[in-house]
Amino acid sequence: PGSAFKTFVLTAAIEMGVNPYDTYYESMPVVLDYPGAPKPWSVKTYGNNYYGTSTVAQATLRSDNTVYAQMALDVGAEQIVNVAHRMGITSPLNADPAIALGGITDGVSPLEMASAYATLANGGEHIEPTIILRVKDTQGNVIWEAEPKRTQAISAGVAYEVTRLLQENIWHGTGTRADIERPCAGKTGTGQEWYDAWFCGYTPNLSTAVWMG
To answer: Which of 42, 175, 196, 201 has its CA 20 to 30 A from that of 184?
Structure first.
């Protein structure tokens, strides 16, 4: 999912109390080492552009890999996995900091990403995706209705703060071409060598994930 997975890092960070508007990291090429790493992790930005001291909010609008890699080490890979699974990702996730940039061994589906982003649109409540909502008889009487599982995955306050930043991303970040001139929020994602391109976004009523690859 590339940088579309940064949303879960951001959510985990805010849940831990990080204020994205006054938390700073250095935007620069970094080589990071951490316990269990097979080798040091070298991280650069896609266009090799760097901005020095940056807030998390600024780095989000630029989709800065180097800032998010550093933040992933502070937040912890296990916590990122925990948040992503709570929000709606069902695929196995390797608890490795590289997942912050979409480095996932088995990948994820567009349905999972749309489901997880919908949690943000829904005030932090995750609703299990359901293909059939209800069944009616020939008279129009409802004879069966789905009761999808609902869980408060993250707090409404955390969902609000993440949405506020992802809405800014539509206005003047990497997602400006998704501006549909109504309330919306979202995040782009690009895999290595452009093998995968994503946009995951939502309005107050709809969530969608688009993948090309």
So the answer is: 196
Residue 59, both tokens: 């780095």
pLDDT per residue as tens digits for the range 57-111: 999 999 999 999 999 999 999 999 999 999 999 999 999 999 999 988 889 999 9
Helix or strand run (H / E) with residue 112:
helix 110-121
Is-contact 116 87, C-beta < 8 A?
Answer: yes
Give 166-183 pLDDT, tens digit per residue. 999 999 999 999 999 999
Query: What's the rounded Cα separation, in Å, for the pair 147 and 170?
Result: 33
- The helix (run of H) or strand (run of E) holding residue 78 is helix 77-87
Tell me the two tokens of residue 154: 């993250």
d(CA 88, CA 113): 7
Count of other CB atoms within 10 angstroms of residue 206: 11
> In this structure, which amino acid lies at residue 181?
E
Structure tokens at 142: 């409802």
Asked if 170 and 179 count as a contact pair (C-beta separation under 8 A), the reply is: yes
**Model-level pTM?**
0.94
Tokens of 79: 């916590």
